[in-house]
């Protein structure tokens, strides 16, 4: 930012029998998502925002700001804003990473985007394709709690990352002046027929300063029982400021990023939408910082790491006045002064505690440097999301081995009913080959064995046996399944 420039699952039977049908299904989903992005500036199931009342930012002030949008000109809508927090990751809002067809929309990170949003060939300091979308494991799309996502870049960025992220839960203070930036819409209004009239997205990066952070008491009183607000992970700020297209963009208190726009109600907070517009909600960076550290600050392993990576942040909290939320269900950053790269994210690798097992999935693996994805990964994800896979996302039957006694346990056994999100999301991007499973580190006393039920001769047999085991509670079948799972974990092909 300012001052930094110098510095999968198995394919269903009908897909195997008719590849054309599978292609048609995928194409229809892509077209629907593309249409939604073109028409509304947001992927299916999420909403965005732009800075209201802002002015054009000075190019070079916010070099670590990232505009996430499709590289295809026909898809003119903005996805979200974000911040380059490491050479490999962009921090944004989780609802920006919700679309089932993200991998097919050609989402690109335009780092340092400032002028000429539509000129994709020259926009920003550098342009890097997004390769992965890692949402916080506790993200709730209904309440927008833990609304944070890390977008992994296909190649490292050369622009120095912005590391002055807020670690102090008491920041921003009540009434602190926040700075919001973004490419979102500048205004929403009502016409004579009370129909919403949306302004276009900004062509140049907008910045608005002096946006007041509101106290938790004011936020709670404003929303009441009709809306959800969790002060531990969310804050709110006065509107109008952020609007559609600003989601995920950084909000600054002084030089520190304290949050990013998450959700707002009432047409970007314009007073002609409601007499007393509700505040906009932002996600608190301090609530996510440990999770961000565990992924961003993790040293990338070369071959086979010996210990399970677990990040313990060592950086001290950096003071910052306040953070601001984003209007409309999409975050919008605000920035008055750009943070300087002082507090760098650093984490020491320590073994994870043994209490509750953490479900290891392909997201977890790739986030730590293991590029072991199956080439048909995207197809498997589509089929999983559409509910066309024989095994629900392949997830419940992925297997971990207890390193203390050699017992095999599935994710379904490890994740209780209260942790269904673990079961439903783990393996959504499955496709790690069985032969690579033995290279994975142990975690919480558990060693990863089978990651995906495909990729080898043994895995195809295991897949069939798993289906039978689900339908027939037979000890013989269970023994056969155990044998095949052990064969897979040994890398047999």
Summary, kept brief:
This protein is α+β, with helices and mostly antiparallel strands.
Core attributes:
11 helices; TRYPSIN_SER; Thrombin, subunit H; Mite allergen Der f 3; alpha+beta; 493 residues; 20% strand; Peptidase_S1; disordered N terminus
What do you see in this structure?
The chain is α+β, with helices and mostly antiparallel strands. The chain has three domains: about 130 residues, Trypsin-like serine proteases (Thrombin, subunit H, Beta Barrel), CATH 2.40.10; about 170 residues, Beta Barrel (Thrombin, subunit H), CATH 2.40.10.10; about 130 residues, no CATH class. It has eleven helices and 21 strands. Strands 1, 8, 11, 12, 13, 14 and 15 form a seven-stranded antiparallel β-sheet that branches. The chain has a six-stranded antiparallel β-barrel with strand order 2-3-4-7-6-5. Helix 10 runs antiparallel to helix 11. The protein is globular and about 70 Å long. Keywords: Disulfide bond, Hydrolase, Protease, Serine protease. It holds the Pfam family Trypsin. Belongs to the peptidase S1 family. This is Mite allergen Der f 3.
Show the helix and strand layout.
Elements: H1 13-17, H2 19-40, E1 55-56, E2 65-70, E3 78-84, E4 89-92, E5 107-111, E6 126-135, E7 149-153, E8 177-182, E9 188-190, E10 196-198, E11 206-214, H3 216-223, E12 234-237, E13 251-253, E14 256-263, E15 280-284, H4 285-296, E16 311-313, E17 347-349, H5 362-367, H6 377-385, E18 399-402, E19 408-410, H7 411-414, H8 420-425, H9 434-437, E20 442-443, E21 446-448, H10 457-471, H11 475-489
Antiparallel strand pairs: 1-11, 2-3, 2-5, 3-4, 4-7, 5-6, 6-7, 8-11, 9-10, 11-12, 12-15, 13-14, 14-15, 16-17, 18-19, 18-21, 20-21
Helix pairs in contact: 10-11
């Amino acid at each position: 930012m300012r001052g930094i420039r110098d510095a999968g699952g198995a394919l269903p039977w009908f897909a195997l029998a008719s590849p054309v049908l599978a292609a048609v299904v995928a194409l229809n989903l892509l077209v629907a998502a593309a249409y939604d992005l073109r028409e509304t500036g947001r992927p299916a199931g999420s909403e965005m925002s732009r800075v209201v009342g802002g002015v054009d930012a000075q190019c070079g002030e916010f070099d670590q700001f990232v505009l996430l949008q499709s590289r295809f000109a026909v898809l003119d809508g903005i996805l979200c804003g974000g911040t380059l927090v490491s050479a490999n990751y962009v921090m944004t809002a989780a609802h920006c990473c919700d679309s089932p067809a993200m991998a097919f929309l050609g989402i690109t990170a335009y780092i340092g985007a400032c002028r000429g949003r539509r000129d994709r060939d020259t926009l920003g300091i550098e342009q890097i394709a997004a390769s992965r979308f890692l949402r916080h494991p506790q993200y709730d799309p209904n309440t927008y709690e833990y609304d944070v996502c890390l977008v992994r870049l296909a190649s490292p960025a050369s622009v120095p990352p912005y590391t002055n992220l807020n670690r102090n839960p008491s920041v921003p203070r009540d009434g602190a002046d926040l700075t919001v930036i973004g490419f979102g819409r500048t205004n929403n209004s009502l016409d004579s027929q009370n129909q919403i009239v949306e302004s276009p997205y900004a062509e140049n990066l907008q910045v608005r300063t002096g946006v007041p952070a509101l106290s938790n008491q004011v936020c709670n009183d404003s929303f009441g029982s009709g809306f959800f607000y969790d002060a531990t992970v969310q804050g709110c700020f006065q509107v109008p400021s952020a609007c559609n297209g600003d989601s995920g963009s950084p909000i600054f208190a002084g030089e520190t990023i304290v949050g990013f726009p998450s959700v707002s109600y009432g047409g970007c907070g314009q007073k002609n939408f409601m007499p007393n517009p509700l505040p906009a909600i932002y996600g608190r960076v301090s609530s996510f910082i440990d999770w961000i550290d565990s992924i961003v600050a993790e040293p990338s392993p070369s071959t086979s790491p010996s210990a399970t990576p677990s990040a313990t942040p060592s950086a001290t909290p950096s003071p910052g006045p306040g953070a601001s939320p984003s209007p409309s269900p999409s975050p919008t950053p605000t920035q008055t002064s750009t943070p300087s790269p002082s507090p760098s994210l650093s984490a020491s690798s320590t073994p994870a505690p043994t209490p509750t097992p953490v479900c290891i999935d392909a997201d977890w693996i790739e986030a730590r440097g293991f590029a072991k994805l199956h080439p048909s990964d995207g197809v498997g994800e589509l089929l999983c999301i559409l509910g066309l896979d024989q095994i629900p996302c392949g997830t419940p039957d992925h297997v971990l081995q207890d390193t203390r006694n050699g017992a095999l346990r599935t994710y379904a056994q490890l994740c209780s009913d209260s942790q269904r999100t673990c079961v439903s999301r783990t393996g959504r991007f499955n496709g790690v080959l069985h032969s690579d499973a033995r290279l994975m580190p142990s975690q919480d006393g558990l060693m990863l064995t089978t990651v995906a039920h495909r990729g080898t001769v043994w895995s195809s047999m295991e897949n069939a046996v798993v289906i039978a085991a689900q339908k027939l509670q037979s000890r013989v079948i269970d023994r056969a399944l155990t044998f095949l799972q052990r064969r897979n974990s040994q890398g047999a092909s």
